């Protein structure tokens, strides 16, 4: 459970800056977000010790349960920010802006007011949780955590637990068939939908499907999350191919190495949990990916429809609640 909690502890600090800019958040809302980030940091410092001691101290176990509940609330708020940013970007025309201003559903002032209320409640809830930790003799690891950036709040892998996905057989078959019949030089497909619907699990099922394994001699899985750093992603792709660390630091040698790895090979690359494509960075990465053989494909999972439609070429799948 520690990695689950660590993932949410990082969530506010990783809220994509482009989303905040899209929403025009400033003033008290931005201050509240910063406050939440600081509160999460103080909680994060004692998480490891709390995980150990919860089995001996029931009160600590209960405290961690409250923190986990709050973490789910954080994910819900992140979804609201992301969905609103997506809606505003899609309706930038003057006529739509005027219409949305007078719409109760999508009036930006109403949204900010609603989110201010929710953020206030979240602040109070997390402040109480942070204060409660002082009741326990928990060791702080602030220095170690600050020096260790290996915790990724949305870290995923290609391993799949098929029991976690129900009612998605049709979507899986649709994706598999599209990948198997693709004859383009490089096709890019995307699955988008709100958090918790099973986008990652669907991608894992497709990735581990026997027909996909036979079709693609090279399969690569990279968790992107909010950090679309082209050097990090290029290095991660190389490391996934080699199964070993890559020490190259500069972009040019990294891209040359990746091009060598992909040339003439038919590959499937999964980019999981993408929050922003940063057009220029994605285009640079995409050019290298075109080195693969015909039929190579990229599968993107994201919460953001605008990201899915900007990145994908022929196919975008919207996951909904079943």
TrEMBL record:
Domain of life, source organism: Eukaryota
Keywords: ATP-binding, Nucleotide-binding, Plant defense, Repeat
Positions of the Disease resistance N-terminal domain: 14-95
CDD domains membership: RX-CC_like (cd14798)
Domain NB-ARC, first and last residues per copy: 170-318
UniProt cross-references to Pfam families, sorted A to Z: NB-ARC, Rx_N
SUPFAM superfamilies xrefs: P-loop containing nucleoside triphosphate hydrolases
GO biological process: defense response
Any one GO MF annotation of this record: ATP binding
Record-linked PANTHER family: NB-ARC DOMAIN-CONTAINING PROTEIN, PLANT BROAD-SPECTRUM MILDEW RESISTANCE PROTEIN RPW8
Protein's name according to its UniProt entry: NB-ARC domain-containing protein
Species, as recorded: Salix viminalis
